[in-house]
Structure formats: structure tokens, C-alpha cells
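Worked problem 6 (solution included).
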Amino acid sequence: YPVIYHGNARLDSQESKFGGSSAFFDGNDSYLTLPDSDDWSFGSGDFTLEGWYYFNSLAVTAELWNQYTDVNNLFRAQVNAAGAIQIGWYVDPSYMISYSTAEGIISTGAWYHIAFVRHGSDGFIFVNGVAQATPGVTVFGTQTLPDYTSALYIGYQAWATRYYLDGWMDEVRVSKGTARWTA
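Solution. The predicted structure is:
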């Protein structure tokens, strides 16, 4: 997929987890987009969204992943200013699947591996290989996730209040059909 860099997003060698460089986001107007794809339309199947993140600042919400149709129909994954990781799917006001970690899980100045996983009806958030949120079978149940038909944004919330990632990202992976971290 063609990755499009926006604003000041760039490959940078100041911080990297692997390979000597990583994607840098300045927290202001830097983000990446990938065109819409069936690869991020998960339906009712297993999936894993993961990557390594280094945060310069968490003064405001740091957006990790986002895809939206409008303010009532969207997917987002983020770290809020209190260091809690949140993920959610919204379809009109009729239903929402959302879960999060406790506050203080994430801070600045260190690399974190963050993975969002659907395994059957269960939803998980892993940080550095440790489950932080295991909300149980009521999270997904047999729910089919919507197919948003917009670009996939990385490092940017593209609706309502604009949130950006301030820091670095390395080794991002989308695994459709596979729950990689379940134990």
C-alpha cells in the first residue's frame, strides 16, 4: 500500500526500536494515510493491530489509528493524556464497542509495544506483551465490525477535535484473521 506522509511526518533516526530509524510525528500536523482496503475491514473475524510507540508528550490525546465516515461512524485507537489506552468502533448512536486500560499505563520517554486484539468474542489490549484490558465476551460477542470506506489514518484523529501523535512509531502491523497475542 502506498503510505502518504503529511505535515512534518518523516523517517527519523533520533529514536528507533529496530533498524536505525522510525516514523516521526511532531504532535502538530504530522500523520500518515493509507488508502481504504479490505485489509482493515475486520467483520466478525480475529485481528491484531500492533506497533512500537515512543511518546514525547501526552499533554493531549495521542492518536494511533483512525478511520471514519463521519463523527458518528468511526474507528479509533488512542492514548489519552492520563496514559490510558482506548479503542472503539462507533456506528451512528445505535451501538458502540469500546474498551480501555487503566490510567498511567503509558508515559513519555520510553518505547512501548501496544497491541489491540480480537480473539473470537474477546477484546484485548497488550502493552509490552502483558494483557492490560481483558473485558470478556461481552465486548464483541458475535458483532460484525463496520466497513468504513475512508483512508486509514495513523497518528491523527481526522474528525471533531484534531489529535495527533507526538513521538515515534516503529514496526506497525495489521493482521486480519489472526489474533497474535492471546496469552
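Discussion: The mean pLDDT is 89.
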